[in-house]
Amino acid sequence: MKYNSIKSGLFMGGVVLLLSSSCKQPAADSFSIKGSVKGLDSGVVILQQFDEEEMTKKVLDSIPFKNGAFELNGKAMNPEMMSIVVRPGNWQTNVFVENSEISISADTTGAEHYDYTAYGGDKGAVLKEVLITGSGNHDAYQTFEKDPQQLKFKEGFAALNKAYELEKKPELKEKMKLKFDSLGKLNNAWQSKWINTYLQQQPGSVAGAYILASYYQMNSDMPLSEIEALLSKVKGEAEKSIYYRRILKSVNSRKAVMVGKDAPDFELLKRDSSSFKLSSLKGKYVMLDFWASWCKPCREGIPHWKKVYQQYQPKGFEIVSITNDSRRADWTRALDQEKMPWIQVADEFPVKNRTARVISQYEAPFLPFYILLDKAGKIIVRSGDEKDIDQKLKELL
């Protein structure tokens, strides 16, 4: 089960835009966004920015939406993917904003409605019938999104999703997951090749950096050598983008916790609210187990770790399970059910809706994820496969 703060295909950054709704004719260093939405008459149109790090939405400009049309004017410090939202109804689409004359023609027909109010989110609709012209970066992004091979993969996933929803037998649903994995690997291979070719031809394209960032967000466990090879192709304006800088930040964070590095110390609370510090286990082999109550493969692996713990704990081995549950009741219920005999602590969420502190510090890309430390506190294994931990423990103990 993959873990990530956001699992949409959109990776929107936080570069500041300077806006002026009173400016009617854009100069070379400003933008104009003229749009119309068939099926809507009036309301308010919003230019919205998504801050990936803070997991927040920021309204950059808001103007009246009259007779089904609007016009936004301003200045973009850097090209950036933004959202256009029409309220009431939260009808939205995304557009790569850059300093040019941009035109948007949309239709509410066929819009994809969503409702996340039960999770504290919004209710609205994503516009599907949209034509955007005038933004070179948006054109480049659409070249990727509408590539015939990309469309085939989307159709394949849609068909699998439909079949999965209709299937009633649990054992058959489990088998279908293998088809998702297989198609996902083929899709990733194609996307990686496409991005590599595109960056070689257009190294300064901010859209290229955006597409790379989107890909990396969904494949944050890819080998460092691969992502660094792709990053090395990004040049010029794209290298100044928030998308490039965010990938680079993640790569540097991953390097800090790779095999051979000292494990960063941390302090978290146990179930009884007493404090646990990782450094207190120096002198033992320690496995950090990143998990959550809602993670099915995490729960399925617990019987195996009970056997491992029973075998190696007397020889100087300890496990520290770090839950990614944001609701304490879910965590404590799982502890009562699973009765794991090793150390249990809860990760912290300093900022609402953002990833937890320690799992982010250790760059654990998904759940379950395991990190094995030697007696000196150095990282000797990083893996999502329990077999890698088993093999190393067999060598050591």
TrEMBL record:
A GO BP annotation:
cytochrome complex assembly
Check the record and name the InterPro entries matching this protein: AhpC/TSA (IPR000866), DUF4369 (IPR025380), Thioredoxin-like_sf (IPR036249), Thioredoxin_domain (IPR013766), Thioredoxin_ResA/DsbE_sf (IPR050553)
The keyword Disulfide bond belongs to this UniProt entry's keyword annotation:
yes
Q: Which terms are listed as keywords in the entry? A: Cytochrome c-type biogenesis, Disulfide bond, Redox-active center
Gene Ontology, cellular component aspect = cell envelope
- Predominant place of localization: other
Kindly name one Pfam family recorded for this protein: DUF4369
Q: Name one GO molecular function term.
A: oxidoreductase activity
Q: Which residues cross the membrane?
A: none
Top-level taxonomic group? Bacteria
Cell compartment(s), UniProt:
Cell envelope
Q: Does the keyword Disulfide bond apply?
A: yes
Residue ranges occupied by any Thioredoxin domain in the UniProt entry: 257-397
Q: What is this protein called?
A: Thioredoxin domain-containing protein
